[in-house]
Amino acid sequence: MIKLILATTLLAGWCAVAAADPQTIVPGAIWPDDRGQHVQAHGGGIIKRGDTYYWFGEDRGQTNDWHLRYVACYASQDLAHWTFRHQVVQARDPAKLGRGWILERPKVYYNVPTKKYVMYAHIDDRRYKVASVAIFTCDTIDGDYHYLKYFQPLGQQSRDIGQFLDDDGTAYLIFEDRPNGFHIARLSADYLDVEKDMCLIPQHMEGGAVFHLHGCYYVIGSHLTGWDPNPNLYATAPALTGPWSEFRDLAPPELNTYGSQSTLALKIEGTQATNVIFMGDIWKPDTQWDSRYLWMPLHIDGPTISLPPPAKWTLDVKTGVVSE
Ligand code: GAL
Question: How far does residue 31's CA lie from ligand 1's centre (Å)?
Fold first, then answer.
């Protein structure tokens, strides 16, 4: 009996620890939102307003109408627990691209002068020949975003896009221009246009993610292998304009980035530590709704970074401290 009481007490204690450990992120697992449904924010981006993070991404929910394309928005204050807010885009081929049209990798920016939320997304026809970006705007962060236009940024092809907000607030779009390479380009003052190329890296990469830490810029990207994972690479530079270093492996190449593909590098600056989270997608092309997320804090040693093997970890967004 004493043993049973002891075991029960220990178990209760362990459960309390588990329950008091709420910030745990488990790479590759089903990630339930507040409704208990797997988060649908694939190829996503995150912005912070006040003390809340908003995660936008492709909503590939199984019950969606397959004629439409959806972007979902979730909110969180700890990056681990996500509350579903709204399907902020439910679009029915607004650019008239025909059956099988594509809307991927949505990224939302907040424009201070116009007080508008501006969403960029890769828009394409089913053969990926249109290679353009679409813009949708909204007055509130999680309202209905309205389609504005589509175009090729700086007159160049654009497939996968990425989002980068520098420490001074300047907003950039990263885009893959198949014949030429990888652009990091500054948005116009109202964010409704892509204004200036900071660099064209003559490397064929997609899933672009950029971050800036201690005066060094880091760019991460994947090879062009569609839904299949490949060894993601990174390079560094003292400025966005370069010069960029050679590209190096982010993880042991034979492990193909642990089955994931980069989408965003999210910097968390806390009161005690600064960490950068690699956000990647583990795509499941035949069951897209079940695609998973691989989020891990990068190991950063000056200009050398690496993605550690996926394992559950916790983050305190206030202090910035990560426990693995
Ligand atoms: C990937 C790309 C995804 C999607 C996919 C389609 O390379 O990163 O966003 O476009 O190809 O095959």
Answer: 21
